[in-house]
Design a protein that fits this description.
Helix content is about 25%, strand content about 30%. It has about 350 residues and is of the alpha+beta class. The chain folds into two domains: about 260 residues, Aminopeptidase; about 70 residues, RNA polymerase II/Efflux pump adaptor protein, barrel-sandwich hybrid domain (OB fold (Dihydrolipoamide Acetyltransferase, E2P), Beta Barrel). The strands form four sheets. A nine-stranded mixed sheet has the order 3-4-6-5-7-11-9-10-12, with helices on both faces. Strands 8, 13, 15, 18 and 20 form a five-stranded antiparallel sheet that branches. The protein starts with a helix and ends with a strand. The protein binds zinc ion. The site of zinc ion (ZN) has 4 residues, from loops.
């Protein structure tokens, strides 16, 4: 008995000496240094139930905690499939620190092939933060991510892509606020490290959701509001699981790990990114059918025709002109259009 104890003690001691850091506990379960564990967290609300698949990577040595979410929108597939690849690409034995990776934050939206919303309560998870433990399914998921992922993170990344109707040009984004220069700058460096050609600045200085009295709404805004450098990836479009874009996301996350000195290997990007400080949204005054020959990534000048809307009998209701010069970040890529919906988002490319 005593011998077993001594052997176990020596084994424990040698593991500690080897890795130099303690076990990590997530949901009362141990994740040993140099290993990863998968978790399935269940949520119920009346008749409804869903789950949250999460992978926790505990590095062999001490370092920061990085929180990553994919599938906050369940129809945005490239980040979700990139998360699946990261299970193998992140090496806990070589990792410094800890990564909490939410594989699919909106699993009901994913399985049900539903864009934007969780079909169980018809709520948009990315408008539900910080969430509510006693609320609907989506609010419960938001509260869990707020407390158990963001609440434990030193850095945060939320991964999105163009949803089912959205033709989107890939970009990284970071949160910026005049009163938070240090974490804004850290976020900027993280976003640049991802290696995307375009970087969008989320200027939050005058945003309501940054006020203490107002909910943060967005997943990564919740992290930023808590004082955590926070970035987004937007990569993928029209609900397609495009292989090149999946690889682009995996590579960018590995670059981020290299930048944060958590896992070496992926080299930093060698090109300069174009920083987009302002975005302009144009919405539709009509419901009908939208036609365009301008894909995301097209440069437009002010007044350029970018498409038109017809009624259901082919009559042209409106020609849509670019109200600003810049690059098309997102444009409706499928025919249906509804009154009040965003048709196009144009990023201003120079001051
Ligand atoms: Zn999204």
């Amino acid at each position: 008995m005593r011998k077993t104890f001594v052997v176990l003690f020596i084994m424990h001691l040698s593991a500690y000496c080897l890795y130099g850091q303690a076990d990590f506990y997530f949901q009362q379960r141990k994740v040993r240094p140099g290993s990863k564990e998968h978790f399935t967290i269940y949520f119920t609300n009346g008749q409804d139930s869903t789950f949250l698949p999460i992978t926790v990577f505990r590095g062999a040595t001490d370092g920061p905690v990085l929180g990553i979410t994919a599938g906050v929108h369940g129809y945005e597939y490239p980040p979700i499939i990139a998360g699946q690849r990261l299970i193998q690409a992140i090496k806990p034995q070589k990792l410094k620190g800890t990564i909490i990776l939410v594989q699919v934050a909106n699993a009901a939206g994913f399985s049900g092939r539903i864009p934007y919303l969780n079909p169980l309560d018809n709520k948009n998870l990315n408008r539900s933060f910080p969430g509510n433990k006693q609320g609907s399914i989506t609010e419960k998921i938001a509260a869990f991510i707020t407390n158990e992922v963001i609440g434990r993170a030193d850095f945060f990344l939320d991964m999105h892509g163009g949803d089912a109707p959205e033709d989107l040009m890939s970009y990284a984004a970071y949160y910026d606020h005049q009163q938070k220069p240090a974490i804004s700058e850290q976020g900027k460096k993280m976003a640049i490290a991802l290696g995307f050609e375009h970087i969008v600045v989320f200027n939050t200085t005058s945003k309501k959701y940054m006020k203490a009295s107002h909910p943060s709404l967005y997943c990564s805004a919740e992290a930023f509001k808590k004082g955590i450098p926070s970035i987004d990836i937007e990569c993928g479009k029209l609900g397609a699981a495009n292989e090149l874009l999946i690889q682009k996301i995996v590579k960018s996350v590995l670059r981020l790990l290299n930048h944060l000195e958590m896992q070496k290997g992926e080299k930093p990007p060698n090109k300069n990114a174009l920083i987009i400080k302002k975005r302009f949204y144009q919405s539709s005054e009509f419901a009908g059918i939208f036609y365009t020959d301008k894909p995301a990534g097209t440069y437009v000048h002010k007044g350029m025709e970018i498409g038109y809307i017809t009624d259901f009998f082919g009559k042209r209701l409106k020609t849509v002109y670019a109200q600003q010069a810049g690059i098309i970040l997102v444009i409706l890529g499928t025919p249906p259009v509804n009154k009040g919906e965003t048709i196009v988002v144009i990023g201003k490319v120079n001051e």
